[in-house]
Design a protein that fits this description.
Structural class of chain B: mainly alpha
Shape of chain A: flat
Strand order of the largest sheet of chain A: 2-5-1-6
Number of strands of chain B: 0
Distance between the termini of chain A: 15 Å
Shape of chain B: elongated
Radius of gyration of chain B: 24 Å
Largest interface: A-B, 32 and 33 residues
Oligomer: heterodimer
Number of strands of chain A: 6
Largest sheet of chain A: 4 strands, antiparallel
Distance between the termini of chain B: 64 Å
């Protein structure tokens, strides 16, 4: 079955960081409940403040801290999900609690070359 | 995540753990550094919120949160210049404390830290409202926003109150220690007071916010049990726990489906929480084993009398009145005297009640409260003096009160206006 990557971007302005312990727990529980759905293959969180951007240009390779410094949104983590097709993948993601705290991007993962032959 | 189990966190785990983390870190850092302890706790919660959604709940979530907060506090001490030459000794203090995380006795250690924090928050040198706010924040893990919602106050007001309280803690060097024998009595009485103030803050009839109010009541009950189970225990602490449990048991019946207030005698007793009633009675039994009779004992006895009646009509009002007589002598509180006047009506009738109210009308604080006018209104209506009752209910409505109270008063005002007197209404059982 095709797999899709759900990229979660946190909006820094949202309440997640200002929530009380009780509210924080309730928020986490919503994610956990979503995470146990059978189509979820798992995922990982990304540490917010240790990003580096590596670029090569005429002067050689540069490493800068980022990319968080430039944007209001920062990538918080990702899930891999299984779905019959793109439409279903979108459908399955509509009740992800993250929509209250940022945006999500869904990308089709190339699992094998056959997919690209259609 | 394997997707087979549904990881459900223990209810209120974060709130409970917040208080423990702050108490534990502050125990090592000292009360001068409450802010660092709080920041570290906040950071641990935030990191959980950012990682647990993906990888799931760690095997020991409580220990995970403790460790993350601990490490964060150390890294803050290393990074921030604001701790100056103290940072090395503070780091050493924190590092000496790492063993406790792995310690089998950690439960006991954390409980002791929490107890010391309770006693510090309730220190008599802090203003009373600051003690309550500080306790709710540091020990019970409520946020400024939540505390503001509980007390219907502005967030800014609560935040300032907390800042001032923490400044006082630093300025007066209030210790994070169990009180010494010689001061135990006074310190414990303050703890009892603060816990009951927390409880009544949650118990008060505020509009909406049903959940958070219940949480405050149960937190106060938990703190009471914590102290009652410690070396600081005293029979009056058991009595306070009994009082809170028996009152909290009535919470589900205190408002009807529409959110309107329901008087004790008209409550559906099947909605009372049996577990809390059992808890209340067991603490009440414990409280009366010694010779001590405190105001908490008497108040618990009143709550126990209400709870042990099988129906409202079976409440032993003469026994309640006897307790109130005793309570009036012990506390000299005008609010207690007012409640006593209500009971006088049940036992000796409205005329006697009006006589009992008369001296209270001179009390300026009571005159500003809707309670006195509301009680007078009920008594006057009972006597058929509808015009005066109407005036009393109108006066009550002029005072500050919550929305459910306002609607309750309006309903009674309507009743006297339309001439349907109380003795013919549903509350007639109460006057028997």
């Amino acid at each position: 079955m095709p797999q899709y990557m759900l990229l979660l971007r946190d909006d820094r302005e949202t309440v997640r960081g200002h929530a009380s312990p009780e509210e924080t727990q309730k928020i986490i529980q919503r994610y956990l409940d979503w995470g146990t759905k059978p189509f979820n293959l798992g995922g990982f969180a990304l540490v917010e403040n240790t990003g580096r951007v590596i670029r090569k240009n005429n002067d050689g390779i540069t490493v800068t801290e980022g990319p968080f410094s430039e944007s209001r949104e920062v990538m918080g983590g990702y899930y891999m999900i299984q779905a019959a097709n793109f439409e279903e993948a979108v459908e399955l993601s509509l009740d992800n609690p993250h929509l209250d705290f940022g945006t999500m991007e869904i990308r089709d993962v190339v699992l094998n070359y056959d997919e690209l032959m259609h | 995540m394997d997707g087979t189990s549904n990881p459900v966190l223990l209810e209120h785990l974060f709130r409970r753990q917040a208080g423990r983390i702050v108490s534990w870190l502050a125990g090592m850092l000292g009360p001068q550094h409450l802010q660092l302890a709080e920041d570290a706790m906040q950071e641990a919660m935030l990191r959980a919120a950012k990682t647990w959604p993906f990888q799931g709940v760690p095997e020991k979530p409580e220990a995970w949160l403790l460790r993350v907060a601990h490490n964060y506090a150390i890294s803050m001490l290393r990074r921030s210049a604001s701790f100056g030459d103290k940072s090395a000794s503070l780091i050493a203090a924190l590092e000496a404390g790492t063993q406790t995380v792995a310690d089998v006795d950690i439960e006991q250690n954390l409980r002791d830290d929490e107890l010391r924090m309770i006693f510090m928050c309730c220190h008599p040198e802090l203003p009373q409202d600051a003690r309550v706010a500080l306790g709710l924040k540091l020990v019970c893990g409520f946020s400024v926003g939540e505390i503001a919602r509980i007390y219907l106050a502005e967030e800014k007001t609560i935040a300032q109150r907390l800042v001032r309280a923490k400044r006082l803690v630093r300025g007066r060097n209030l210790p994070l220690l169990m009180p010494r024998r010689t001061e135990l009595r006074q310190r414990l009485d303050s703890v009892l007071n603060v816990i009951y103030l927390m409880f009544s803050g949650g118990y008060a009839a505020h509009a909406g916010e049903e959940l958070i109010r219940r949480d405050v009541c149960l937190e106060a009950l938990r703190l009471g049990q914590l102290v009652a189970a410690s070396s600081m225990a005293a029979p009056r602490m058991d009595a306070l726990v009994a009082l809170m449990a028996l009152q909290a048991a009535r919470l589900p019946a205190r408002t009807d489906a529409a959110g309107e207030l329901v008087l004790l005698e008209e409550q559906d007793r099947s909605l009372w929480d049996d577990e809390l009633i059992t808890l209340g009675f067991s603490y009440f039994d414990r409280s009366i084993t010694g010779d001590e009779v405190s105001q908490w004992h008497v108040q618990a006895a009143i709550a126990a009398t209400y709870a042990s009646a099988q129906t409202s009509a079976m409440i032993d009002w003469p026994a309640v009145l006897k307790h109130y007589d005793q309570l009036v002598e012990m506390t000299a509180s005008p609010v207690v005297a007012l409640n006593r006047a209500v009971v006088v009506m049940k036992v000796h009738g409205a005329k006697a009640s009006l006589l009992a109210l008369a001296p209270l009308e001179k009390n300026s604080a009571l005159r500003r409260s809707h309670l006195l006018h509301a009680v007078r209104g009920r008594v006057l209506a009972e006597l058929g003096r509808d015009a005066e009752a109407e005036a009393a209910f109108s006066a009550a409505l002029q005072c500050d009160c919550t929305q459910p109270e306002k609607r309750f008063l309006l309903k009674h005002l309507e009743m006297v206006r339309s001439g349907s007197s109380f003795s013919t209404s549903a509350s007639s059982t109460a006057s028997s």
